[in-house]
């Protein structure tokens, strides 16, 4: 009996030791991982990724989205259709993202390709946020100008850190997956925290106060530029700039003329453009309509943070289950699910959820999770296809060009959605036709199925461009693997910002 008790005590102590060891691994594992990346890649790069993807884009981007919605509604007091169209204008800097990419690649400032652009982006962001925050009676179009400048600041910082991650993935191919994880985790955690805090901060300090707080994430971008480790390039000949611009333009035009490139690019634009965005009409109804839920700012922020979890679930589901399916089949089913998920908004607007005994708060949480998850499932194969369309030698610039086409589709969707809200006379106080706007949007989400033939039939692993377009011998496997890592890192950084745009 004594021996049995002693053995039980020893067994218990073993379990305690194992439990403590597991706890230490959970706590210190990420710290050791970050230390490893810092020692291999330089701490300033890790600091830059966390600062830009996590704090500036993730945290700051989500705070800025909610603050902008309340600023346009409560401070500028514009109609939903106007807010829809005007805020879309602020995304123009993302459409010309290839220009920023070319500039950072071929035009060094004071001998540096990256550091000055980080500093410039941070200064532009700080100044624009300060003007909006401190000006008491800022005209609508001046506010729109400063919002567009802040968007340009974020786009410049984004393309610069993209270039840094691409460079490091080629120099350290064995760490490409670690860098991808760092980019994704930083952005996801930042967005989750930002959306969760957004409603609370808008309630406490107002939308203009939140814009004032956004000066800190932008100031951090300038700090990254000051401390970033980058080799100096002396004696640069600026006479080369025009020729390099011309060469890059010719290479992109030659590739875009290939039917294997322009056909899926056209589909990606159309699938986004005709899926009308009427978010502002729904947002006004959620918060202002007497017949609606009348959600407070804190509730709106919490709902959006829950939606971020749905987006992460969608990306996980795609990675585990759907990544091996052919492009065309995947686009077919995700587009159908995308249209069906919109019916949840129709049920909410018609108040049918209350007839079934489902409270607004519970129903909108489920709606947001499902919508964001399916939206991510729809978006992921398009992003993978985009990465497959990039020829060797101009991968980064051409990937940015294709993403610009997608951003143009998103902007067109916002403008067309604003026109729809205006035609149906959905205003700040009148929401009688909002249900019809939702129904038309859901039907329009089915229209991309008629141009599905533009999407290649091949699966996501074997599809590739013809060798004459790729520009390199396919036998150069090592170089291909390194450049594929570069494209994957760009994909990781851009996929996390889709929901914010």
From TrEMBL:
It is a multi-pass membrane protein. It is found in: Membrane. Keywords: Membrane, Transmembrane, Transmembrane helix, Transport. Residues 465-501 are annotated as: Disordered. One of its GO terms (cellular component) is membrane. InterPro entries: BT1 (IPR039309), FBT (IPR004324), MFS_trans_sf (IPR036259). Pfam families: BT1. The keyword Cell inner membrane does not apply. Residues 469-483 have a biased composition (Acidic residues). The chain crosses the membrane at residues 117-134, 140-161, 182-204, 210-229, 266-287, 299-318, 330-352. Its main location: membrane. It comes from the Eukaryota. NCBIfam families: fbt. Belongs to the major facilitator superfamily. Folate-biopterin transporter (TC 2.A.71) family. This is Major facilitator superfamily (MFS) profile domain-containing protein.
